[in-house]
Amino acid sequence: MAGADKFNGFVFDGPKIDDLDLPRIGGKIGVGEDIVHGVMDTEAGGKSTDSKGRMKALYEPHVAYRNSCGAVRKKLVAAGLAYPNWKKGYPADSYPRILRAMAIDETVALLATSWGFPQVLGENFALAGYETVQDMVLDFLKDEDNQLEGMVNFIKNAGLDDELRVLEAKLKRGEKITADDARPFVRGYNGSGYAKNDYHTIFARNVNKWAKIPDTPYTPGAPVVELPDDLYDGKFHKEVEAVQKRLDELGYPEVGAVDGKWGTKSRAAILAFRADNGLPLDRAIDTALLAALMTAAKREIAPARANATVADLRAEGAKDVAAADQTQVVGAVAGGLGGISIIGKLTEQFESYGGLIKTAADAIAPVQDFLASNLWVVLVAGGAFVVWKSGALKNIRLTKHQTGNDVSL
Fold first, then answer.
1. CATH number assigned to the domain covering 217-300
2. d(CA 338, CA 335)
3. How confident is the model at residue 189 (pLDDT cuts 50, 70, 90)?
4. Which of 44, 109, 119, 275 has most Cβ atoms within 10 angstroms of its Cβ?
C-alpha cells in the first residue's frame, strides 16, 4: 500500500547508537547511562528492531479508539482494530494490525503505535519534538540517535525528568533503586496501567543491573567527532595519528611508529588500552575510545615488569639480550687472545646482530687500521670496549622493559 511504501516497510537500516550516545543525550536531562539503559531495556529489551529488521512497534487498539471518531472509528472497531479500553492478548507481531489500520487511516494507526526502543507512543509526537506523527516515525527510522533524542525530549516535555534525577541522585550515593522508587516515573511514562505489567519492578531491576556495569568514560560538552569510513585502509589519517600519539603518551609502546597509518600494531595497542580501561574489546576507533583516551591516566607498570632484571629478560628469551651476551663473550676472548683476525671476526659478529648491536660495530670500524698496527692495544682495549658496550646495551634494554617502553623479546 502507498502509506507503507513511504515508510519503506518500516525496515530500519540507519546508524546504530554507540556507548557514548547514552551519557551524551541522557546528560541533557541530568541522568547517566544506567537510567537511559533502564528505560530502553524496559520498553523494548534495549533493541530498536524486531527479528525481521523492522523498527519495533506495538499497536494499541484502545489508543486508536481515542484518536478516532465517526466513520473511521466505526471501521476500526468493525475490523477489531479499536476498542474503548485496554485488553490483554496483543499479538507478538503488531505490523499486520498496523498495516490494516493504516489502510483505514494512516495517521490514527501511527498515533496508536509505540515506536523504536524507547516505545514513544505516536500520539506523543509533539512532546517528542515533532510537528506530525509521520515526521517522528520517519525520523526514528533514519537513526537510533533520533529515537534516543525523541525519548529524552518526551521525558523532559512531559515533566518526568525530575523523577529520573531523583533516581540518579540515589545511584550516585551507591543505593539501589526500588520498585517503589520507580513508580513516579513509570506511571508517567507508561500510563496509569503500568502496574498490570509490573513495569516499575522491571525498570528498577534493569537500572540496578546497569549500575553494576562500568560506565562509558564521558566528558560532558566533549565535541562529537565524525570519523571517516576508510580509517583502516593503511593510508595516512590524522585521526589514526592522533590516537597513536595519545596511546604512546599513555604508555602503550605496542602502537609502534606514530605514522597515522592503521596496522596490526595500532590494533594491538587499542585492544590493550580497551582491556585496561573496561571498554568493549573492539579494534574500532570510535567516540567512546576517543573520550576514554582524553581522560585516561598513564598506564601502570606491573611490579614484575618494573623490578625485572637482565636475567629475567634472558629467561624470557629476549633476542637482543642473547645477542649482547654472545658479543660480550666474543669481546672477552678478543681481550684475552687478541689479533687482527679476531677483530675481523668480531666485526662480522657485530654485523650479524643488527639494530643497536650493529651500532657498536660501526663505532669500532673507523679505528680498525689503528688497531691492526697496535696488536697489544687490541688485546686489551678492543675486547674491553666490546664487553663494556654489550653490557651497556643490555642495561638500556632492561630500562626500556622496566618503564614499559619496549614490548619485544
1. 1.10.101.10
2. 6
3. very high
4. 109
